[in-house]
Hints:
It comes from Platysternon megacephalum. It is found in: Cytoplasm, Cytosol; Peroxisome matrix. By secondary structure, the chain is an alpha/beta fold. It has helices spanning 13-25, 43-46, 61-79, 84-87, 121-124, 143-156, 187-190, 248-261, 310-340, and strands at 4-9, 29-35, 89-98, 114-118, 132-141, 160-163, 178-181, 197-207, 214-217, 223-226, 231-234, 238-239, 269-280, 285-293, 296-304. The protein has one domain: 3-Layer(aba) Sandwich (Rossmann fold), CATH 3.40.50. Bound molecules: flavin-adenine dinucleotide and oxaloacetate ion.
Amino acid sequence: MAKQKIAVVGAGLIGLSTAVYISESISKCSVTVISDKFTPNTTSDVAAGMLIPHTYQGIPIHQQKQWFRETFDYLFEINNSSEASDAGINLVSGWQIFKTIPDEVLPFWSDVVLGFRSMTEEELKKFPQHRFGQAFTTLKCDCPSYLLWLEKRLKGNGSQVYARRIEDLWELHSKYDIVVNCSGIGSRELMGDLEIYPVRGQVLKVDAPWVNHFIRDGDSLTYIYPGIHNVTLGGTRQKDNWSLSPDPRSSKDIFDRCCALEPSLQRAQDIKVRVGLRPSRLAVRLQKEILVHDGKKLTVVHNYGHGSGGFSVHRGTAKEAARLVGECIAALEGSSLKAKL
Ligand SMILES: Cc1cc2nc3c(=O)[nH]c(=O)nc-3n(C[C@H](O)[C@H](O)[C@H](O)COP(=O)(O)OP(=O)(O)OC[C@H]3O[C@@H](n4cnc5c(N)ncnc54)[C@H](O)[C@@H]3O)c2cc1C
Ligand SMILES: O=C([O-])CC(=O)C(=O)O
């Protein structure tokens, strides 16, 4: 049987990781990634890349936990291999601190990260405004390095990568058997999906190599995330704001909030401002869809809407998308066999 031709739309974290999973797990297909933007110009490049899950209201917790565990285990293995530095993965320990006791003293992901415990009174003394805290070790991606690593993996296994904007998925009908839609916030226009909306995030990437412990305020607005090449200082969450222009007042506010938690950041150098639009949705859309037009059919698998937590769950959602692609291939092969009989 001829190989099925798969087009993956989108070369952010979700498109690349899905394309890698499909190309490495399904032998009877060829994979082509088509995207209008690539690293370093995607939302995924702006992210802090921390593995701390955000809850999706529309998805059962056991499912989210499984996605997180699969992602954590995958990156942990890379972190313990000779690939770690190329892939931009590092382990990082730190604190999540709260001004009031949170509803979830033990979050669902507490037994996936390493060494999760409550902070001691002694540790909390560093944060006089905060009453409670959680200490743990997790993983962090240097996002542009990780995206480049995924892209190299794809090219290395014979997959194709093309720069092109897709106005309508039907453009791909004549050349591909299955389209995997990983266009993130682009799905609002491409699919007309009004359930997806932007949550604007502005961060600072600074040089402060002495900072090697993360601090995240439980209000999820302020964070200090040390990575391999820089420290990410966050952030903002502005729903339905489409502006990609840096806002100087937000930069000052972010810097002041982070310095209040870690005063040594006053000495940070080489401050760069980055803005990204989180592709937010009540639930990630992971679904098969058969589009029908003029009697023709186009098989689509959607994987988009990861909001604030794409890095934390991307490997798990890529695996699920690949499983759906496998089902589509079986159905297409079944129907072409029937047509021959
Ligand atoms: C400031 C900030 C900090 C973050 N920090 C974290 C964090 O610490 N941990 C975490 O887990 N998550 C974090 N996130 C969330 C994470 O960045 C996203 O969940 C993730 O990047 C989404 O990836 P994506 O591939 O769906 O989207 P994108 O990176 O936006 O990729 C979408 C791709 O689709 C392409 N595309 C779109 N429309 C079309 C079209 N019509 N034709 C062709 N191509 C198209 C785009 O060019 C792009 O390549 C953060 C986000 C922001 C903004
Ligand atoms: O909230 C965090 O810790 C980082 C993040 O995912 C975001 O800003 O979207």
